[in-house]
Write a structure and sequence with these properties.
Length: 462
């Protein structure tokens, strides 16, 4: 039989060992220990401040809790399964250290408002860290973009060659996605940073507590207005997992592109040895494991979001043990997103080498300048739809003749339409095709240079 539980006075027999294991969350909520200690210290200070306990008792509680923090950091405090959860573990140890005063810590509090407080404190710190990772990722993208304003890369729609692009422009698209991720997390933070402490088990407390006081000590922006909502709300967890999933959507898209680019079919990038792995049987292989893993890990983060949504669906007020299931998903999503952002940042920074020569060949060997021929005619008075049809026929006959547009003679051009002149060759050169798209937000070099300046300012914002 397991040891007696904190709540065991009400019970005749001890918990079945298997049920104790099933019930316990200490194996994973130990991750919250420092937040639990910080939250408890604020609660103890508030109890003293409001006269619910004496100032000396408050001091003792705070000091004892600080000792537990030290013991934990030094590896001397490792609570086992009999502690049930991190909250009981800390309270029990506190009483061992400071004696019966430790038993006063839980006055005017429940594990329900306590665990909500801990999870929010944890997530608050993690959100700021993830935002920092996003910034690092953006800075690396910017560095590569700055060096590659005039490097051309084929642009695709439907994964068919569409129009050539500045490589910088392509990478800056990911920078913008990361910017939204950064902003989205900032928005989620607002809903994370609300204190449920003092909501009690569900209905508040009979003690004259000061919820604003603890909220201030813990740097919460505000407090929950309704105690039932405060202890059972996990919207903030769902929102966080949604923001985390969105980051993974973006990282998985970049991953997929890198995987394609590194293939023999594209050959747009070379994978450096520091970020690629070999095959156990095929000696020629160099595998893009990093982006593949990121693409794969996207699935588990989505899974955590789905799990959290389903945990909350139909859950009656207020706290239910189901809510204990929120933590592992949150922790795993946090760790996965951080690891993926870090790895993708390193991959982009030093694991990839773009092949400008190969890219230049790629943009010169297709019909991705066809729109520009139509634009050329349209700019000379031919209605665009008519110009489009003319160029469609030219592309068709050129393909049949095994030629590219640049291979047509001026005479052939003029047979197609008298408006064509010598400058058509310049107009359809890949460089000019890119440079000419100088509309706001377009791939034209001037636009891209402006976009880089704007992005530099953006990523300096903390
Ligand atoms: N370990 C629990 C959790 O993670 C703490 C709250 C327990 N509350 C209770 N009424 N059993 O949710």
């Amino acid at each position: 039989m397991t040891k007696k539980q904190t709540w065991s006075q009400r019970f005749e027999t001890a918990l079945h060992p298997a049920i104790a294991r099933f019930n316990a969350s200490i194996s994973f909520d130990i991750e919250l220990i420092e937040y639990d200690i910080t939250g408890s210290q604020a609660h103890a200070q508030m109890l003293a401040h409001t006269g619910i306990i004496s100032p000396e008792e408050g001091e003792q509680l705070v000091t004892g809790l600080e000792q537990i923090r030290q013991e934990y950091r030094e590896g001397k405090f490792q609570p086992g399964i009999d502690a049930e959860d991190v909250h009981f573990a800390v309270e029990k140890r506190l009483t061992e250290i400071i004696g019966d005063v430790g038993k006063k810590l839980h006055t005017a509090r429940s594990r329900n408002d306590q665990v909500g407080t801990d999870t929010r404190l944890y997530l608050r710190g993690q959100i700021q860290q993830i935002r920092q990772y996003l910034r690092e990722f953006q800075k690396v993208l910017l560095d590569i973009a700055e060096k590659n304003v005039e490097t051309l890369i084929p642009g695709y729609t439907h994964l068919q060659r569409a129009q050539p692009l500045s490589l910088a422009h392509h990478l800056l698209a990911y920078l913008q996605m990361a910017q939204r991720d950064w902003e989205r997390l900032g928005d989620v933070y607002k809903r994370v940073n609300i204190s449920p402490l003092g909501c009690g088990a569900l209905a508040g407390t009979t003690f004259p507590i000061d919820r604003h006081y603890t909220a201030k000590l813990l740097h919460f922006d505000s407090i929950y207005a309704n105690s039932l909502d405060g202890v059972s709300d996990r919207d903030f967890a769902i929102e966080f997992l949604c923001a985390a999933s969105m980051i993974m959507v973006h990282l998985s898209r970049l991953s997929e592109e890198v995987i394609l680019w590194a293939s023999e079919e594209f050959r747009f990038v070379t994978l450096k040895d520091s970020c690629a792995t070999g095959s156990s049987i095929m000696p020629q292989k160099k595998n893009p494991d990093v982006p593949e893993l990121v693409r794969g890990k996207t699935g588990r983060v989505f899974g955590h979001l789905q799990a959290m949504l389903v945990i909350m669906k139909g859950l009656p007020l207020a706290y239910n043990k189901d809510l204990q299931e929120d933590k592992e998903g949150i922790f795993d999503a946090v760790n996965t997103v951080k690891a993926c952002l870090e790895s993708m940042t390193i991959l982009m920074q030093e694991g990839l080498e773009f092949r400008p020569q190969r890219l230049a060949e790629a943009v010169a060997e297709d019909f991705s300048n066809a729109t520009d021929v139509a634009d050329y005619l349209a700019a000379r008075g031919v209605p665009f739809r008519e110009a489009y049809n003319i160029v469609g026929k030219v592309v068709k006959t050129s393909i049949a003749a095994g030629k590219l547009l640049k291979d047509l003679t001026l005479q052939e051009w003029q047979q197609i339409h008298p408006a064509f002149a010598e400058d058509i060759y310049e107009a359809i050169s890949p460089r000019q095709v890119v440079a000419a798209r100088n509309s706001y937000g377009g791939t034209g070099f001037e636009q891209v240079k402006q976009a880089i300046i704007a992005a530099r300012i953006q990523v300096l914002q903390q």
